[in-house]
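Practice set, problem 2.
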Amino acid sequence: MQDAYPDLDDVQQIEEPAIAIPVSVQVDGPVVVHQLPSRTGPVTTEILSTTPVKVLSADPKRRRAVICGTGDWYVSHINSASGGGVWPEVVPLVIEHGDAVYAYVVGMGASTLTIVTEYWAD
């Protein structure tokens, strides 16, 4: 006759972790991959002026960032008011690299950036 009250270990069926042994792998042919969801996704805002400000620091853990402004703004990977490209208002800019990003407003107008950042790791 079976025990009417099994042990907690029997119910949970927790297995002991195996010892991790490094193994060299060489891929030969196509490999199916699945993109995992981002670990975190903080949202920030930045009010721009005519002086370049760092809106994203360099970070190798950043998966991507989406930036949208309320007015036209310049975007650059260097801290310089003489470089970069003009990005139009309310058009999202998707950045999928880990470099620093600087921004400043076009002309004497005003622009507020909304920055949504997604990270691969904590």
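Problem 2, part (b): a different protein.
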Amino acid sequence: MHTSPWMILALAVFLPMMVGCSSATAPWLDTEFQYGEVDDPSTIQEGINVTVGLGDLYILGHLVTPTRCYRLEHEFGRKAGRLELRIVARPTGAGTCDPLGGYRYTLAVFRLRSGTYELTVVHDITGAQGGQFTDSVTIR
């Protein structure tokens, strides 16, 4: 079978556009989560700051733990007009740890549909009282 140069050119031009269209309208969400320990936990004010930019949601949060030996994980869910982020802080099981720890985390959520959402962020900290924070966010 012989393929004409025009057919190859057409595939080279239109195939990337078709793949791009399907991934741009995909129904799933992408998230990116990072965290790090702060130098002086006594200066932390526990809470969140929320920013929306170019249709994406960015959450910056701070939390205090009983010691510096914790790891953070996240769970993110969306249901209708509600978004929930749960930050789970668990001890690492490491040996001796300095008392009082503090962490800063960021979560970026990509591909949210346009609309207004009620955001709830829950800090679930083993060995300490967590917190719950709410905010209304509009994605355009």
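Answer key, part (b): The radius of gyration is 21 Å. The chain is about 15% helix and 55% strand.
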